[in-house]
Structures are given as C-alpha cells and as structure tokens.
Amino acid sequence: MAHRLSIGIIGAGGFAAFAAKAFLKVDGIRIHAVCDVDTSNATTLAREVRALVYPEYEHMLQDEAIDLIYIATPPYLHYSQSRLALRAGKHVLCEKPAALKTSEAEELAAYARSKNLLYTVNLLQRYNPLYTVVKTIIEEKWLGDFVHGFFENYASDEKLIPEHWFWEEEKSGGIFIEHGVHFFDMFSGWLGRGQLVHAMEIRRDYPGKKIMDRVQAVVLYQNSPVNFYHGFNQPKVLDRQELRLQFDWGDITLYEWVPVKIRLHGFLTSAQVEKLMQQFPGASIEMQSDPALQELHVRGKFRDITYNALVTVTAGDITDKMDRYEQLAMSMISDQWAWIRDHSHRRVIDDTNAVESLRIAEEATEIASVF
Fold this sequence. Notes:
Layout: E1 5-10, H1 14-23, E2 29-35, H2 39-49, E3 52-53, H3 57-61, E4 68-71, H4 78-87, E5 91-94, H5 102-114, E6 119-121, H6 129-139, E7 146-156, H7 169-172, H8 175-191, E8 195-206, E9 209-221, E10 224-234, E11 240-247, E12 250-255, E13 261-268, H9 270-279, E14 284-287, E15 296-300, E16 303-307, E17 309-316, H10 321-341, H11 351-367, E18 369-370
C-alpha cells in the first residue's frame, strides 16, 4: 500500500468520471473497480479508466485488492454505503454530504477512528491556493477585523430535470445539506465555528409539486454575520458565484464556487503590497498612493489607521475553473493518501470537516422558515 493506492468507485456519474481521471494523474493511484446501479454507466467509466466492473457493491467490497472506496452516489446513500465500506475494512472518501443526519456522520467518523481507517468527505475547497491566501490575510489581520461576509450562488438548474433526485429532499437532504456544506466548511476554516441565527427556504410551483429552489441562512462568525444564498433557477449561461469578506480596512472578493479569481481592495503597508506582488505575479494592481512614501492616516471605528497605500489587486481568470477543480481533486487525494501511509501526517481536511459542515447545514434545514 505504501507505493500504490487502489480505488473502488461506487457511483459512475459524470462527477465520478471527472474525479477518477484527476486521481489517476497522481503517480501510484489506480482505479481497480467501478460499480453502479446502471451497469452501462459502470461499464463506460471502467473502460475509460481500465477497471473492473462489479454489478453488486457488496461483492466489490470483498475484493482485497481495493484499499479505498470512493463514493459518488446521491446523498441518501452515503451513510449506508460508507458504513458498509468501513466495516469491510476499506478506507472511505465520500462526496458531500457525509450523510443526511449529523449523528450518522459522527457514527461513521468514530468507527473509522476506532479502526484506524480513513473517513473523509470531499470538501476540497480548503486545497485552493486562494483559500490559503485569504486565511493568511485573516490570521495576520492585514485588513483588521472581519465585520461581514456573503456567499451568493446563482446556480443553473438546466441539467436538473424535475424528476432529478436533487429536488427530492428525502434523497438530497435539501440545498443546505447537499450543496451548502462546502461553504459552511470554507467560512469555518477561515473564521472558526459559526452560530446559525436564521434560515429560510423558498419554493416554486411546478405541476404536481412544489420545488424548493432557493435557500438563505445567516451565520455568525467572530460575532459578525455572513449571509449564504443558494438559488438553483438560472440558465447555464447565467450561472455565477461571488463570495465577499468585509474587514475594518478593506474587502476580499472571490469569484466562482471553486474560486479562481480574487479581488482585494483596502489599506495596505508597503510590505504587504510587496507580498501580494510576489503571490500574484502579473496581477492587476492599482494604488491611489505610493507605498514608498510616508505613512498616511485615516480614522475608522474611532481609531487611527496607518497605511502606505489604498490598493486594489485583481488576479486570476474564471475560465480556469475546471483546471483548478482538477488540481484540488489531485491535492485532496494526495493528502488523504499521505495519511493512509503515515497516520502522523496532518491532513488539510479530515472527518471533523464532514461532521461540522453537516451540523450547521442540518440545523439550517430544521429551523428554516418555508415560503
């Protein structure tokens, strides 16, 4: 196992195919087998990645050549399939969410720890280099204290036909659980554990049923609010996402749900400007004053603010999203594999991310006012 990681895949949809091909770009990883309720899907993916096909998941779990099971099925199956895999002695990497209930995720995490098995949910946002840049700026207080944030997700429903499991809350868990966990995890990584203060769900009429297509939640981090909005009602051409963090002395904006573009605007010292130039070579940098000149002073929150320049930095390109996505998948599987080889390795994400992101998503779903 030290030099090779053999993966079995359950669920052979489009994202599983994307992830499998990214995993295979990591030296030493191979896809050993694929299983799906639709045998034709399993056969197609298996042919592309040169793997075996197992008609039955339970039979695949008996294959001793498999080290890790990657689960890419609808959310309502995640708990039972992860549980079976762990009890078969397999490491588990599951797509989000961990389960539909936090208690189930806690059970899986505890069992995996008791058996020294890997159990991780693919919350890969923390592998993004832009995530790391923002975390550094927050921790070093480049822009002072955090005061407000938002994530706005104007997502497409073009491929989500009315019969898709996404709209069936007993299968998806609803938008907070199926999709929101990514962003609850991202903000908690930057700002610490959040406290939910409000949530709502908005439904639209469709013949024969109501579809819940928009949700919004307000979560306090460091006693400052963050607004989360997810709407799945756009044509694909209008699909876009924007995330902003506002601080005492400026703001940071990230673009796309897998962020690939950043805009920073605020007061900076000459040393901070230099670090940004090194971090983002070729970035667009506008300065309203020369950082080489003497210190400048303004006031905010009844305090003096000393700076060298009011700076706007823009870097990245939204057309790079799929390349960035692939890089994150590769970084994630490499990180998890490092832990399998050596349990002293400190992972970027582990089972705690799976549990905590689901905890706030489940709470938002439970308390949401429905309109």
